[in-house]
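# nightly structure sweep
# worker-07 picked up a monomer target from the shared queue
# config: single-sequence mode, recycle default, output format = structure tokens
# input follows
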Amino acid sequence: MFDVYRNGKRDFLVVSNGSPMPVLYSSNKWRKSRGRVLKVSDEIRAAVQERGYYLRSARVTKKDLIHAGRSVVDTTPGNL
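# output follows
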């Protein structure tokens, strides 16, 4: 099982159940998710086993929006 924490910057941190918060991230204001997480992806599981935690940012930046906007444009010759 895993504990999932979120902060106000839309980051989330996954640690194994009962493990302490990593020192680098303990000063931030994290809120623990109430639900129990039984399954995670293989990528998250490997990171938790290797480093003791998994951190991901879910922030949307202007660069992400611009990149996403370009990827949905239909570039077929007849539609230009």
